[in-house]
Write a structure and sequence with these properties.
With 362 residues, the chain is mainly alpha-helical. The protein has one domain. It is built from 12 helices and 4 strands; from the N terminus they run αββαααββαααααααα. The longest helix is centred in the N-terminal third of the chain and has 32 residues. The radius of gyration is 20 Å and the shape is globular.
Length: 362
């Protein structure tokens, strides 16, 4: 147990240090070639900020995982195995990473990005890595493959775009992602699934390093945004970890655990429910669901008069409260369907209060 924990810390440290060293170089590159996120009417920042900070997520993750596994297995040997689903994740992650970089550098239509994301999402069910059991949610357990395929693709696309779209203020996407990844690192460690624990903690290290520069870097010096390359990549890996954790099917998944789907749901609930709310709000008003505006949760909270750091604290607190409530309700024996309903009610009440406070400040 102690040895495995040591490997997790090694992966975290390697990724963290690599990102801490690499980010100033990326910022310098952006400054040299004029690669900035420019302010406009729908963005909250007022200055041109280097936007490629998230490009270090993939190399940091890769370095942390590979070096740690080599140390763990003392080189490549018969115990060193990489499954098909892991290869699929790498291919899909590279796809969303590259379209993110292209979008950051040249720009890309939302529909084109969505098509490529869909192709990357299809890689999961094609290697039988999917949502195949609702674990009693609404009284449903095993679901057929023909239903599991589209549900899995939808969930992947939802998580990827939720992380991407909630990246609207300093520290929000990276802060939520760090908490989610740290949680999965612990959860996989408890399952003795060391590869996935190392993946989680390695990406958490890179995310924490970015959080530091994004939150506390000075404008014109070391402050940077993650860009689509970072947010799409984060979303894709989190989607993989969430779907992998809840899956019940040997050898791709784990043994049946009643709480596994609820845990994955809880960790990605807040960013996902917000993007669903915003999408439906636009649709009901006859607008495109892909149209950019200022209706996300962080925008609405800031419109109450809070600054970015205060808004970040409010949303992170909401995330933690929902996680604690779900844990308490589950331990108390409440069925998952009721817990999901309570989560939606909490979020809806929170948004209702925010909207009321916004009206009162007009």
């Amino acid at each position: 147990m102690v040895i495995n924990s040591t490997y997790i810390l090694i992966a975290f440290a390697i990724s963290l240090v690599f990102s801490l060293i690499g980010t100033p170089l990326v910022v310098k590159l952006c400054n040299t070639y004029g690669i900035f996120d420019l302010p406009n009417s729908r963005k909250v920042h007022k200055y041109s900020i280097p936007r490629l900070g998230g490009t270090l997520f993939m190399p940091s993750l890769g370095l942390g995982v590979v070096v740690t596994l080599l140390i763990m297995y003392q080189g490549i040997n018969k115990d060193f195995e990489i499954g098909v689903s892991n290869v699929m994740m790498v291919i899909g992650a590279i796809m969303v990473y590259l379209i993110g970089i292209f979008d950051d550098l040249r720009g890309m239509k939302a529909t084109h990005k969505f098509i490529i994301q869909t192709v990357a999402a299809l890689l999961f069910p094609l290697c039988n890595l999917m949502i195949n059991n609702l674990h009693g949610l609404f009284g449903i357990h095993e679901i057929p493959i023909w239903l599991g395929y589209p549900i899995t693709v939808f969930v992947i696309l939802l998580i990827v775009n939720a992380i991407n779209l909630i990246d609207g203020i300093d520290g929000l996407a990276s802060g939520l992602a760090f908490l989610i990844l740290a949680s999965f690192a612990y959860l996989y460690h408890e399952l003795h699934a060391h590869l996935f624990s190392i993946i989680s903690t390695s990406l958490a290290g890179a995310t924490l390093a970015f959080f530091f520069f994004n939150m506390y870097g000075k404008v014109g010096r070391l402050k940077t945004f993650m860009g689509d390359s970072g947010s799409l990549f984060l979303g894709y890996v989190i989607a993989y970890l969430a779907i992998k954790y809840q899956m019940e099917q040997e050898p791709l998944g784990f043994s049946y655990r009643e709480e596994s789907l609820l845990i994955s749901f809880t960790l990605v609930f807040l960013p996902c429910i917000d993007v669903i709310r915003v999408g439906l709000w636009r649709k009901f008003r006859g607008r495109s669901m892909f149209e950019a505006d200022k209706t996300h949760i962080h925008h609405r909270i800031m419109q109450m008069g809070l600054d970015m750091h205060q808004t970040l604290a409010v949303i992170i607190t909401l995330f933690i409260v929902i996680c604690l409530i779900n844990y308490g309700l589950y331990v108390g024996g409440l069925q998952s369907a009721y817990i999901v309903g309570i989560d939606i009610a909490i979020y809806s009440m929170f948004i209702w209060i925010v909207e009321k406070l916004n009206i009162s400040t007009v």
